[in-house]
Amino acid sequence: MSTINAHDRLMVALDVPDLGGAEMLLDQLQDSVRVVKIGLELFTGVGPAIVRLAQDRGYRVFLDLKFFDIGETVKRATALVADLGVQFLTVHAHRKTMQAAMAGRGETPELKILAVTVLTNFDIEDVQESGSPWTISELVVARAKAAAEVGCYGVVASGQEPKAIRQAVGESLAIVTPGVRPVGTATHDQARVTTPSQAIEQGANYLVVGRPIRDAADPQLAAREIISEMQAAFNRRIS
């Protein structure tokens, strides 16, 4: 029976605005977390220096920039990301955008392209306002199918959609689930949230957690508790 190490599957979001805050959080988590997510705010404020800082401390890096632009721009930007040596990059799940990112990645297989299906703070009204006649689940599944066809490593989807994605594309895509909140924590601005156990039971492979760890009195303890819950859920899933 294969095993999954939950330490490799928790992605902690460095949702802080500056290098000092990021360095503090990286130091606090160093003995328990292996993957950190660098988002738009921190990367805009600090630039590639934050990637190097995380790598120097032994972390794998998930660069969550959600590229969505004309193909040539996405292709060239993705090539620059590949040169940074990060492991994960997000782009929006539109076919031309995904194709451009895959082309930009080139011969750098360690860079895994993740396609963002529907943002986790969107609800049905947001989807309808964009002109889509589909439900959120239908739109997520359609975009996941496109990501699989293009050859992306995985998709980003809320914990409410992995089961439907699995039914549509099987195990061909990794599923990264943000908007994860342990029981008893605030949902903040997330519209579609799940607990770590629920997301994994539905079929998620990686979980992204930010504020419940960042804002905890002891971030390392909070991360370890989530990893423990994740490990138990993975063990149940494979048994």
UniProtKB/TrEMBL annotation:
Binding site for substrate: 15, 37, 64-73, 120, 181, 190, 210-211
EC number per UniProt: 4.1.1.23
Enzyme class label: lyase
InterPro entries: Aldolase_TIM, OMPdecase, OMPdecase_AS, OMPdecase_bac, OMPdeCOase_dom, RibuloseP-bd_barrel
Pathway: Pyrimidine metabolism; UMP biosynthesis via de novo pathway; UMP from orotate: step 2/2
SUPFAM superfamilies: Ribulose-phoshate binding barrel
MF annotations from Gene Ontology: orotidine-5'-phosphate decarboxylase activity
A Pfam family: OMPdecase
Active site positions, chain numbering: K66 (proton donor)
Domain Orotidine 5'-phosphate decarboxylase: 9-226
Keyword list, A-Z: Decarboxylase, Lyase, Pyrimidine biosynthesis
Catalytic activity line of the entry: orotidine 5'-phosphate + H(+) = UMP + CO2
Task of the protein: Catalyzes the decarboxylation of orotidine 5'-monophosphate (OMP) to uridine 5'-monophosphate (UMP).
Subunit description: Homodimer.
Family: Belongs to the OMP decarboxylase family. Type 1 subfamily.
Protein name: Orotidine 5'-phosphate decarboxylase
Lineage: Bacteria, Pseudomonadati, Nitrospirota, Nitrospiria, Nitrospirales
